[in-house]
Design brief:
Mean pLDDT: 90
Largest sheet: 6 strands, mixed
Radius of gyration: 15 Å
Distance between the termini: 20 Å
Strand content: 15-25%
Structural class: alpha/beta
């Protein structure tokens, strides 16, 4: 998975003041829908909320990966939200969530959806990356951390 193909710098937000799961999903929906005319933020929100009703997408250790399928899009998109303070997200470990990476995929892209989710889950299991994301002072720095991440033990191609 190549993060810059699904995540644009405009879809990264740092130090957001969000106090509820619903508000976080609303903000992520707005971010995901903001650069396309094919869908509305309400469409994205409804998809994310429907998925959350099945079971929480809170992975634990302060991370959530809300995701959903949306009609009328042809490309997977991602948004990252770093919260100033963690919120209740019904995560399995009952810990507050302060890093949310939302994924919006075309309605009929089951295999791609699962592959991207698996890659994001692997990425956010890296506690060193999560710590760098939590302490990143700006949206630009958040974006850089994500786009330069390599799996632990992988030969690094970083050009910092």
């Amino acid at each position: 998975m190549n993060i810059p193909e699904i995540l644009s710098p405009e879809n990264v937000s740092s130090q957001a003041d969000v106090t509820s799961k619903k508000r976080a999903l609303e903000l992520l929906s707005h971010m995901l829908a903001s650069h396309t005319e094919q869908i509305s933020s309400a469409d994205v929100f409804d998809s994310l909320l429907a998925r959350e009703k099945l079971s929480s997408t809170g992975l634990g250790k302060g991370v959530a990966l809300p995701h959903g399928r949306v009609k009328n899009i042809d490309q997977t998109r991602c948004a990252l939200l770093q919260l100033r303070k963690g919120i209740d997200f019904d995560a399995n470990d009952d810990q507050p969530v302060d890093l949310l990476c939302a994924l919006m995929v075309p309605e009929h892209s089951t295999d791609e959806h699962l592959q991207v989710l698996a890659a994001l889950a692997e990425m956010f299991r890296d506690q060193n990356l999560c710590e760098r994301l939590r302490t990143a002072p700006t949206s630009d720095k958040l974006y850089q951390e994500l786009t330069h991440w390599r799996p632990p033990g992988h030969a690094s191609e970083d050009k910092h």
